[in-house]
Amino acid sequence: MKSGPIIIIEDDVDDQQLFIQALKEINISNPVRWFRNGREAFEYLASTSDQPFIIFCDVNLPGQKGTEFKKQIDEHKELRKKSIPFLFYSTSADQATVNEAYTEMTVQGFFKKQDDFSDIRNQLKVIVDYWMTCRHPNTH
Q1: Mean pLDDT, the chain, as a whole number?
Q2: Is 27 left (phi over 0), alpha (psi -120 to 50) or beta?
Q3: Which CATH architecture has domain 6-133?
């Protein structure tokens, strides 16, 4: 559902605050669920009846890389059925990781975090606007 929560998996509190502020400035009213690691996010996703709108995940996370977390989602039958758009949003955007994300997982995007707040806000606006208008299996 387009009004479902936006999931952020990000261990850096400063980045998380910038992300949330940018969403507020572009008038996104979806609730935001923030997790510091993939384990916490997976527990939530596997147990909630919520239909998240989108997942933004960092690549470098404590305990489990974001790529490992995404593979875990892909292997979970019920989570795959939810067809939650999954985007990597990370400072780590080397070509090998980008290739892995697109060839070994079902990601819908890979974005490099911007340094300037205005650029962050503009980038998130483009991403959210796209998914608000995009049709996918759980569009209602």
Answers
A1: 90
A2: left
A3: 3-Layer(aba) Sandwich (3.40)
